[in-house]
Amino acid sequence: MSLSRRHLMQSGGLGAMLLTAAGACSRPDQAASNDLAELDAVETAARINSGETSAVEVVGGAIERAERINKKINAVATETYDAAREGAANVSGVMAGVPTFIKDLYDVTDVPSGFGSRAFPGYVGGEQLPFVTGFLNLGVVSLGKSTTPEFGLTATTESIATGKTRNPWNLDHSTGGSSGGAAALVASGVVPIAHATDGGGSIRIPASCCGTVGLKVSRGRTPRGEPSDMPLSLSTHGVESRTMRDTAAVSAAMALPSSTSGLAPLDLVTAPLKERLRIAVVTKGADDGFVADPAVMAATQSVAALCADLGHHVEETVFPVGAGFSADFSLYWAAIADQVMTSWEQATGMPRNGLAFEPFTLGLANVFEENKADFQGALERLFGVEALMAEFHQNYDVILSPVVRTPPPEIGYFDGALDYDTLIERLTGYVQYTPLYNVSGAPAISLPLSMSPDGLPIGAMFGAAKGREDLLIGLGFEMEEARPWAGRHPAVFG
């Protein structure tokens, strides 16, 4: 049974915060809509709570959309529709009845997990990570698992195991990765929010490709992901959404207390930022010689001009990292692939092979094996990035940059069957902007502020000092108000 509005207000905490968000950030476009595909999570929860609709109706509608739309976008790795219908009848929580998906890199108890790979046939999820449990405890109803590339290791969602996930704006183009299934399901109106994670851009890249909002929070802001022997924690959990208030609500709900995170508290942000910021504009990539595609460059400059028109101080500069950052990050990424395979070998007693793993994953692991001697030096340099970024933010509140170097590429451009050298060169050139924030542990957000001449989304990325998600969310509300994106839908929607 859903909690009453009165009970939520009396109970305080997140329930009151979300109802406050629904009122403080009212959206006329949603208030007038009777189409459940148009509603964000905050509005959906408010309507369920008021009795205007029911969790059963909302979840049923989302399942109908999923069954119809997924035939075109292929973003669902595992369906749990029957369990969702059953759960919707008895759901409770501050987001009771809001439909969602969980990214298929992470277990949901008693639900199959594939990790975007052929290496785990028949595996059923066991113990859930704390973030997944906490997210589901908000009352959201999972309809299943969203697609991801093998182990989340690439910037598109085209795994051999689950097939090619397609961009709802243009089915011939990539959704990005590794939360590509999540972003496609949100962008197409199947669900208002979907669980996502970001270890090198995996929330922000799909957000840019699919025209959604994607916030990577600071390291430590939410419960850490799966246990790992890797020395530097890159990945954080969050959601793909279509509105700032959904991103704000989930981020505040899932934030750990300061006593645990070591960060300033993240209260619920419900309004545009009032203070004017010092914004650094960066269009060159982390490595010398990498510049954005003309369409992405024009989009970034347009957003910079908008920020200046709104009274922010805007200044062009470059990232504060030395040449070779991408090489160091790529070697660390290769070490992650090697660790995954080593764990698999230990669990199965079989050697890594091309029947279980994709060529790119094998290639990454081989690169690590061949360059182990360089790993410690790369690690030391990566550990130094946090201090470099902290010093940079003494002069700038926020960094504006592209999310990725080009608009969404065509399906197949990052095909995992390509020879390793070709694919890693393409990926390194494409992902020049996002990994910096995973390494430094600072927050960054992709906002759907521009479109390419071909009608594909181009995100703008804003990054802040570690612990300053509040600046990014407040600025996001300001951008959403100044350049609204709510009425802009892809060809495949609802």
TrEMBL record:
Residues 218-241 are annotated as: Disordered. This is Amidase. It comes from Hyphococcus aureus. Keywords: Hydrolase. Belongs to the amidase family. It comes from the Bacteria. Residues 57-472 form the Amidase domain. Gene3D superfamilies: Amidase signature (AS) domain. GO terms for molecular function: amidase activity. PROSITE patterns: AMIDASES, PROKAR_LIPOPROTEIN, TAT. Its EC number is 3.5.1.4. It is an enzyme of class 3 (hydrolase).
